[in-house]
Amino acid sequence: MKVNKKLLLWVMAILLGLNQEAGAMWVHLNETQKGEAMGYGMRNVNTDLRLFFKEWTVDLGKNGVAILNSEFLTLAFAVRDAASSGQELDNYAIDDALAKVQGKLVFTVTLFGKEEDFAKDYVGLIKFGGKTFSATYWEEGEVTPSESQPGMFVQDLFYYFPIGEIPPEGQLSLLVGSPQKKEKTQFDFDLKKIK
Question: Does 6 score more than 60 pLDDT?
Fold first, then answer.
């Protein structure tokens, strides 16, 4: 039986007690942290996605859901996705997955609305330490009829912010909504509880 030495080393590191509370979101993963993320992905190949994403999720029910795609979660999900189809990530695929989120706060937001174009002008803002930051990049996913909220539409929105001066153990609020309206949907994240 052929043994993947790199994977074996990461598993050994985890077993040696390196799987402790983070105390802060991990930024620029080191090899040990990459190993822990890969281990999380492998251990949870068959886990329900809601449970898999739970640590990184703020769920406001019918008002929406936001996921903070940290480097840890992004790598873990890439490993889970590959393993579910019987594949293994090579170093290039690992680096490629991490490159999309390194040095950034990346949020996936799922919102519900009554009209098909309800989120067409929505913006993403972060409030932290009395300051407000705008997303530097955003994407809109396809609008589809909601299965969980009959008569409503659902849309995924993706917002990218540079980490900049936001400490990885800070608390922040992601605000999503129309720039013309004062009220926005607010998702509160505590980064010290997220890897």
Answer: no
